Amino acid sequence: MSSIVDSYLAKRKELIEEDTSLRADRAKLRNLTPLEAKAEALVRQIRKHEAEEVFSFTLFLHEVPDVASNQIWSQKNESLEHPFPGMAFLTAKKTIESTRIFKIIKKMPKGALLHAHLEATVDARVLLDLALEHPNICIRSPCAIDASNMGNILPDFAPLPLAQLKELEASPSITSSYYNPGTYIPIHKARNEWPASLGNGFDDWVIRAIVINPTEAYGTHNTTVKIWDKFVSCFSVIRGLVAYEPVYRKYIRALFESCIEDGVSYAEIRMNFTPKTIVAADGAGAVDHSYFVGIFQDVVQEFKADLTAQGKGNLFHGAKLIYTVIRILSVEELKWYLDDCLELKKKFPDTLAAFDLVGPEDKMNPLIYYLEPLLEFSRTCEEQGVDLPFLFHAGETLGDGDSVDQNLYDAILLGTKRIGHAFSLVKHPALMRLCRERNICCEVCPVSNEILRLTSSMPAHPLAAMLNHGVPVALASDDPGIFSNIGISYDFFQVLVASEISGLMTLGVLARQSIEHALLGAESKAELLKVWDCQWTEYIEEILAEHTK
Amino acid sequence: MSSIVDSYLAKRKELIEEDTSLRADRAKLRNLTPLEAKAEALVRQIRKHEAEEVFSFTLFLHEVPDVASNQIWSQKNESLEHPFPGMAFLTAKKTIESTRIFKIIKKMPKGALLHAHLEATVDARVLLDLALEHPNICIRSPCAIDASNMGNILPDFAPLPLAQLKELEASPSITSSYYNPGTYIPIHKARNEWPASLGNGFDDWVIRAIVINPTEAYGTHNTTVKIWDKFVSCFSVIRGLVAYEPVYRKYIRALFESCIEDGVSYAEIRMNFTPKTIVAADGAGAVDHSYFVGIFQDVVQEFKADLTAQGKGNLFHGAKLIYTVIRILSVEELKWYLDDCLELKKKFPDTLAAFDLVGPEDKMNPLIYYLEPLLEFSRTCEEQGVDLPFLFHAGETLGDGDSVDQNLYDAILLGTKRIGHAFSLVKHPALMRLCRERNICCEVCPVSNEILRLTSSMPAHPLAAMLNHGVPVALASDDPGIFSNIGISYDFFQVLVASEISGLMTLGVLARQSIEHALLGAESKAELLKVWDCQWTEYIEEILAEHTK
């Protein structure tokens, strides 16, 4: 019998190896340095411990000769409501922050942030503080705000010329029963006169309108459609604060600060170019797209220069903009924006990186709706020798064969370099093969997908299937200012604790891969990879030193 | 430009065809009769209409030349809480029953029920009524039941010898403050003396302990681990009522009646053989496994004979038993059961069909734990020329690389003919290929998976990926007595409304496929397929006549 068992176990090992052979981490796992091997084992051990102690799950290890990771979950006790590793992010956030695994991930060099929407990349508190530095930012409401309606009214901000402020200072505030509906009130006045009877104050009211809270995601808005309504409303509040030249300058810098604080050293940021202008510094004039891209480029250069002056140049390699418009435009309108994008690319070749369409895929136009102008754009770029690829959102859906799911066909056929989300990709055998063959990277945003109710928790997310099928992946935060997942550490955490196959090396491979899929020139990319490799080596030494005392 | 667009659309069509070429319904869709084509279109039209009217979703159709099903969801209004097609089953059940789609599915010939656990196949109300026909069934409680504790106490039933009843009739009932904890009280006494102050009555209390309600599945027990605790407790209550020879006889017949009522004409039923006996008719003696299989076989034959006498022989082809034990046994204990199973197979070659292990995969032993006896069993069967295959549960988990997920490797390497659930199969490229190549059918149980919290709703279920990857699938109800999904119609419904690729023909292909994967001899299977084909033709005519007046 024992020879039969041995031969069975040999076949089993072979099958598992074949089954996982497409994974991006396999090559790395065959070539670990002794320190990397030690760090990998350490992190698996801490993860197991914290699954038990923090998330109240016990991992039983069934000893099987030559077969690793053969483990069983079972529940132990309760501290959180419904605890398990990879559980609902907004409920678990504070608990996640308390773990050693999170602290280990936080320090990791993350490579590139490839999927984030500028308007939602900065913490809500930070954004509000930036806005408060500008007393000419005003707020209005469709009616006087009181305890009965405050939960349903969204703050409507706009910067006004300083000259108008004096008069507005004299009007009754938005919370006064004498408030004149629809009139602007200076933000500081509204804030100072916010009555104590209205709960936790003006700031709390504003921030609640910018971020999604657990009750909304898991209670009142618990479907993909409902939570998108809340999500879209957040953007409308943010825009009033941020679409103002001086705030934007500081906001972009705050984004870069949050990047380096989290170990992200390069970013490609999607910005919504649908509005043709933002408000100029004087509160009256308008600043156009070209001026705006110039601001972005200036802030990148200033930020890099400041870091270099401090001897920290390696922390930040730079950032580029991805031109996006909302997929509600008419075909004719889109043509204007595609021309605009091409002009900007010529003017800012190193800052403008790609083109994309955004907005709720399942409510707005599919890619095929814009087929002709998109094909035309590709041809024009080719003819003019301009390297301005598509980076389409596609498949951010639970649908099977609906328009959003079918966007994946068009994204790939239109030659997208990466795919935003690709949540439904695992349903498509031919498309997974094309992603592997053409090295099309999927920008997967775990926390975003969970809060937007595509998945109820991380263990139910298709990422594990994507990795096992060898689909190129980079992890990203999407809209961290709204989802409260600033940096990429929270997303990395959810991925690490929800799989027994993935480990620290997997995260390392994904981080490095994010650089490989960045839209950088060959030389620039090689330089960034070299820096990352050094950072990684130091990082492994550092966590071993810290956690194996 | 138009030639570029045309060539694009041709490539697109080709890619979609390639991407869906592995689906089991492709051959059928190329060879529809005119009536089938009409029925397919009709059902898609009703589904679209009901998505809007019943589930408050609007389907927008984007017209694309030569591309079908290019549709978009968006929300319209609210009647249910969080409504969408494929939403939480227990919340939507009554709504589902009100739809035309459900009525159409209900009448469909479903083929074989390949995955259901005997102890949980009959409606709780029906079971309780069967038990109430036997006054010697008694109930006990660890303490007197009152309003404060009734939600936490499980009814503990057992049949007793009639001779003991008189004395027990005189004792205070379980709801009396004089109740002597742990003593048995006749069921009718407990029922008659149930005080009005304890809510909806004795029957309601018992049924609540047998079925999972929406509050439990989606509120208090909303994790895979917690809901399993409730699920397991349901079985303990059921067992006290059903593990009694005369009840079991009627219970098995009730199961078959529910099968034909739902268009299921053949069943392979898993039974838990871990307990070595059930209680005999006199309430004192014990009936062993062999006697029990004899009862099952008798009921099958009686039921068939009765139907044949009524000229309805085609409605029911028969049923077989799958021998299952709980995967908590020691290796030594398992050997006893494997021997027992083999002996029973020799005695009842046409009724005993296969062997399986059951119980929460993530808390109990993985298949590899029993490797030696399972390999030994296969060898013995082969040596003795006995056809007694494995039909293992495997991969009923959200885990990635844990023991439960790895059960898939062992199920396949041990030669399983079908896989129970295979929920995590889509994570495994090599295993999906093996399932295709070896024609291993996955018994997918959509409602079960959703209630047991592996998926939050049907659109998030991996079934769509399994179908697109060409994995052989049969749909089943698992534990309909506990999940309230009697028949397979509810499961078929959830599948149909959660995909734009699948249609009525897909369900027909899955139903026919369930017969092809049944453990029937070649002749018997051919006969059943022939009957199904006739029923299908009649069915198509019938629904067209009924819905196109």
From TrEMBL, chains A, B:
<dbReference type="GO" id="GO:0046872">
    <property type="term" value="F:metal ion binding"/>
</dbReference>
<dbReference type="GO" id="GO:0006154">
    <property type="term" value="P:adenosine catabolic process"/>
</dbReference>
<dbReference type="GO" id="GO:0004000">
    <property type="term" value="F:adenosine deaminase activity"/>
</dbReference>
<protein>
    <recommendedName>
        <fullName>adenosine deaminase</fullName>
        <ecNumber>3.5.4.4</ecNumber>
    </recommendedName>
</protein>
<keyword id="KW-0479">Metal-binding</keyword>
<keyword id="KW-0378">Hydrolase</keyword>
<comment type="similarity">
    <text>Belongs to the metallo-dependent hydrolases superfamily. Adenosine and AMP deaminases family. ADGF subfamily.</text>
</comment>
<dbReference type="InterPro" id="IPR001365">
    <property type="entry name" value="A_deaminase_dom"/>
</dbReference>
<keyword id="KW-0964">Secreted</keyword>
<dbReference type="GO" id="GO:0005615">
    <property type="term" value="C:extracellular space"/>
</dbReference>
<feature type="domain" description="Adenosine deaminase">
    <location>
        <begin position="225"/>
        <end position="530"/>
    </location>
</feature>
<dbReference type="GO" id="GO:0046103">
    <property type="term" value="P:inosine biosynthetic process"/>
</dbReference>
<dbReference type="Pfam" id="PF00962">
    <property type="entry name" value="A_deaminase"/>
</dbReference>
<dbReference type="InterPro" id="IPR032466">
    <property type="entry name" value="Metal_Hydrolase"/>
</dbReference>
<keyword id="KW-0732">Signal</keyword>
<dbReference type="InterPro" id="IPR006331">
    <property type="entry name" value="ADGF"/>
</dbReference>
<dbReference type="InterPro" id="IPR006330">
    <property type="entry name" value="Ado/ade_deaminase"/>
</dbReference>
